[in-house]
Amino acid sequence: MNTHIVKAILAAGLIGAAGGCSTMVQGQSPVAASPAPVAPVDPYAAVRPATSSVGVVMPALSDFPHPWDITTYVLRVTQFGVMPPLNGGVAFVGDSLTDSMRWNEMFPNIRSRNFGISGDTTVGLKARINQVVIAKPAKVILLIGTNDVEFSRYSVTEIVANIDDCIATLQKGVPGVKIVVEGLLPRQPQYDEKVRTVNTLIKAAAEKRGLPYVDLYSHFVVNGRLDPSLTPDDIHISGQGYLIWRDLIRPYIENN
């Protein structure tokens, strides 16, 4: 798998277009284009870190939004795999929106662990959800799916089915765990309809299981997009945005 990861990264970001063509300069003979560079072989591919070393089956490379997300996933999953159990506390689970905040400092009196991975999708989380089970948290704050909205090859129903599968795994693996399901934040206007559709389905899935659903969307949306005053890139949120998010989930974290 490591060899495939290296090749995927090289192919996506470092290798020029395959094949060749001829260029014609007036009055001159055709000049053959330079051949595409050959991807170097990593002599250490066989010993590079792999998710399999901590019991996680690597998702298909096509399920990662960007080549660099592959490396991030391997790094974070192998790190989670060597951490001791929480045996209580709060697990924050999700993608870069979760990963980017120091939740232990937002809630300094609560023992917690950040299981966010930048670039993760519902497929990636489903592959690694047992790492959260092994940690045995008392509570899980779950937000996942925004990368699926933009990059995933799966339908909205499949996206939410992945989320529901993760919830089912948590409930089975950690009896009595309290799970808080969060709806997606708004994004750029072209994704607004899909975000709202996914949120409707996430809410229905949470209510079917008797779980609290936290509506983040309505607190961050302006004219069908993520409030520009709270985001530098129309996806991620500023410190002020995290303060809003913190206050929305505080009751579920600080109360039994």
Query: If you consult CATH, what is the topology of the largest domain?
Result: Rossmann fold
Number of E-state strands: 9
Which band does the percent of strand residues land in?
A: 5-15%
Q: Please list the strands of the largest sheet in the order they lie side by side.
A: 4-3-5-6-7
How much helix, percentage-wise, in residues?
40-55%
Per CATH, the class of the largest domain reads Alpha Beta
Q: How many strands, which pairing sense, and closed or not: the largest β-sheet?
A: 5 strands, parallel
Number of domains: 2
Q: What form results from the Cα inertia axes? A: globular
Could you state the order of secondary-structure elements as H and E?
HEEHEHHEHEHHEHEHEEH
Calculate the terminal CA-CA distance, rounded to whole Å: 43 Å
Number of discrete helical segments? 10
Q: What is the CATH architecture descriptor of the largest domain?
A: 3-Layer(aba) Sandwich
Rg estimate, integer Å: 21 Å
- What class would the helix/strand composition place it in? alpha/beta
CATH superfamily of the largest domain: SGNH hydrolase
What is the typical, i.e. mean, pLDDT? 90
